């Protein structure tokens, strides 16, 4: 049995050498960008600007990605998203609408509270090493129920029932950080800190994501989506 397997880890070299990345990258197809009239972003900064511009269109109610039948046939051959968005499961938060992007443009990882666990890291590694994403955005949002529940759990010193404690424990560090500053709006401060902490986590996660960040192939950032206005503020 190989040493990497016994350790339960996989190196970047192992990912590609094993053929998985090559096979899946080939299946992405050169026509994967046919769904959009925009050229694929070449750099992380260009990818982030495309998201910022898309959000501006969304706020102005002037979207350009309205015909989802365009490129449907091409998308059946594979995918090649340019950005990953780690976002909350909240039904009011829809990244493709918020950033005015079409099907196939965004690789979305969702969980209540938009934190990154082991499964989330694996998904982002796949997005970076196989799909070629250029940027990762951890997107929190106003009035986040998951963050609010974590605050209440800490203040009441009571864990919620079922599997909810795992969610609370994941968000707890951000709440403690925010509490230390005694903010006027603890929910807003904790939501922002949660997004920032998880963007930092994506940037330093060994071995794949940290390597991509160090080489400048990808960048991570945090943002807050205002449900009332539709605007994303990058932190």
Automatic annotation (TrEMBL):
Reaction(s) this enzyme catalyzes, per UniProt: hydrogencarbonate + H(+) = CO2 + H2O
CDD domains: beta_CA_cladeC
Domain of life the protein comes from: Bacteria
Keyword annotations from UniProtKB, A to Z: Lyase, Signal, Zinc
Signal peptide: 1-32
Matching Gene3D superfamilies: Carbonic anhydrase (3.40.1050.10)
Enzyme class: lyase
SMART domains: Pro_CA (SM00947)
Pfam families attached to this UniProt entry: Pro_CA (PF00484)
EC number of the protein: 4.2.1.1
Family from the record: Belongs to the beta-class carbonic anhydrase family.
PANTHER family referenced in this protein's UniProt entry, alphabetically: CARBONIC ANHYDRASE, CARBONIC ANHYDRASE 2
UniProt name for this protein: carbonic anhydrase
């Amino acid at each position: 049995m190989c040493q990497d397997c016994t350790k339960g880890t996989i190196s970047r070299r192992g990912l590609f050498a094993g053929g998985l990345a090559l096979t899946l990258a080939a299946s992405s197809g050169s026509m994967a960008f046919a769904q959009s009239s925009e050229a694929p972003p070449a750099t992380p900064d260009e990818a982030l600007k495309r998201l910022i511009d898309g959000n501006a269109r969304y706020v102005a109610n002037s979207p350009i990605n309205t015909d989802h039948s365009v490129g449907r046939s091409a998308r059946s051959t594979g995918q090649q998203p340019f950005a990953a968005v780690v976002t909350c499961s909240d039904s009011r938060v829809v990244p493709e609408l918020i950033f005015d992007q079409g099907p196939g443009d965004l690789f979305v990882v969702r969980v209540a509270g938009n934190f990154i666990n082991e499964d989330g890291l694996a998904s982002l590694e796949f997005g970076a090493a196989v799909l070629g994403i250029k940027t990762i955005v951890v997107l929190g949002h106003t009035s986040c129920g998951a963050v609010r529940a974590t605050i209440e759990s800490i203040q009441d010193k009571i864990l919620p029932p079922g599997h909810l404690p795992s969610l609370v424990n994941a968000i707890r560090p951000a709440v403690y950080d925010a509490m230390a500053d005694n903010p006027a709006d603890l929910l807003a401060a904790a939501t922002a800190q949660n997004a920032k902490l998880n963007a930092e986590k994506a940037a330093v996660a060994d071995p794949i994501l940290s390597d991509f960040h160090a080489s400048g192939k990808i960048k991570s950032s945090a943002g807050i989506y205002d449900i009332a206005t539709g605007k994303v503020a990058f932190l």
